[in-house]
Amino acid sequence: MNSIRRYIILFFYVLPVMAIAQLKVPELWGHRVHDDAHILSQSTIDQLEQQLKVFEDSTTNQIAILTIPSLEGEILEEFAIKVAHDAWKLGQKDKDNGVLLLIAVNDHKMRIEVGQGLEGPLPDVICNRIIRNEMAPAFRRGDFDGGVQAAVNGITKAIAGEYKSDGDTGSGTELSGKDKLFTGVFIFLILGVFTYIAAFTQGCAGWGLYAFLIPFYAVFPWIAIGVTAATALFFIYLIGMPVLKVILARTPWGKEMMKNMASKSSGKGGGWSSGSGWYGGGWGGGGGSSWGGGGGFSGGGGSFGGGGSSGSW
Known about the structure:
alpha/beta
């Protein structure tokens, strides 16, 4: 009974916290440059708006820039997808040719999020070089105007097949294949253990643990397997787990396993409690852009699959 109570308390504690900690995406408002962190000069904003408009008119490729003060606890890559794919829908629907340049100033993080149609000319490795060689050095000097301008020039040149990077030095934040493998094994080992327990635990405790794992399935797998595969895995868990629990409860083998799990749980007097101090803040940006011309910009319904690269300075 105590374990059931703990699961229920944790369930109702975690989900509201997760809901509160949602960083709001600003409205597009017809602008390509959203400087909500106020790091760019007005002349740079005007120049970038004009440059990106001309680039879109000549190629149909859409590039947008968003600077924010802080991620407020959000995951950089996840928030970039939320902006580029879910909210702004950058790129043409039939071409998926959108790009988002996201900068979180107080976190010292940036990301180039690339639409699926541009992952060929603008692969992860090129995005990483642009971040590492063009943006990061300028940002360390406090030259945000120069860093953003260099990034936009690098992105447009890369799409045209003309990007050349001098001195490919330094280390990026992209995980190597070995790191991704190790991280993936660790993540799925932990998730697997708790998923097994949730599957064979009867009653409210089992269903509570199932609900508790939902946000973890929504966030962590993308680190190892990418956004597309992680999204598929999330829905498999979300829909498949309840079906599996119902089936197990109706089969002799499943009933026996659940009985064994119950006897093991009752034989242990230990327990656990959560003293997490998570908190989330809301960010209501969207009014930081200060551009006065070329309005009417809007996304065309493009798709993003997690391509691009992240970095820091």
